[in-house]
TrEMBL record:
Protein name, per record: Uracil-DNA glycosylase-like domain-containing protein
Stored SMART domains: UDG, UreE_C
UniProt cross-references to SUPFAM superfamilies, sorted A to Z: Uracil-DNA glycosylase-like
Record-linked NCBIfam families: hypoxanDNAglyco
Residue ranges constituting the Uracil-DNA glycosylase-like domain according to the UniProt record: 7-160
Lineage start: Bacteria, Pseudomonadati, Pseudomonadota, Alphaproteobacteria, Hyphomonadales
CDD domains with a match to the protein in the record: UDG-F6_HDG
Native organism: Hyphomonas hirschiana VP5
UniProt cross-references to InterPro entries, sorted A to Z: Hypoxan-DNA_Glyclase, Uracil-DNA_glycosylase-like, Uracil-DNA_glycosylase-like_sf
Length: 162
């Protein structure tokens, strides 16, 4: 099945870019980033930036934009059955040259999990601004359960709030 990702959440003055690989089924059905109820993304965004799960989705998006945090996925299109990153085939990346040109203040790039990191290295790292550091972060997916929420949050904070 061919899947198309979402446009970025990004204000022009964004300084932090968080990249996933491709939205999962729950997110695609809801039309929202990280909509699976057990995904740790929004609890981490709550702890770091105040974009808490109990806020409406539009309010969470506004909080992130005010805090200069952008959210996107490395891939624009792919083929995938189910939600697992391991099932992704036929990757078509998003236009990072245009994105980085329009967001010159990006200084931290957080790669949400191994698949996002591998796809970023393969398709987009050549467009990464010299002033931006890309860091692989533990996946927020409920499928990645080897770290608890506190441990994930600490690693995300250390990488993005430095």
């Amino acid at each position: 099945m061919q899947i198309r990702g979402f446009p970025p959440i990004a204000a022009p003055d964004a300084e932090i870019l968080i990249l996933g690989s491709m939205p999962g089924i729950a997110s695609l059905e809801a039309g929202q980033y990280y909509a699976h109820p057990r995904n740790a993304f929004w609890p981490i965004m709550c702890a770091l930036f105040g974009a808490c799960p109990d806020l409406s989705y539009p309010d969470r998006v506004r909080v992130l934009a005010r805090r200069k945090v952008a959210v996107w996925d490395v891939l624009q299109l792919c083929q995938r059955e189910g939600s697992l990153d391991a099932a992704i085939r036929g990757e078509v990346p998003n236009d990072f040259a245009t994105f980085f040109a329009a967001h010159p203040n990006i200084r931290h790039i957080g790669l949400n999990g191994g698949k996002a990191a591998a796809s970023f290295r393969k398709h987009a790292a050549q467009h990464q601004p010299a002033s931006a550091e890309a860091v692989v972060l533990p996946s927020t997916s409920p499928a990645y359960a080897s770290l608890n929420l506190e441990a994930k949050c600490a690693l995300w904070r250390a990488a993005l709030m430095a």
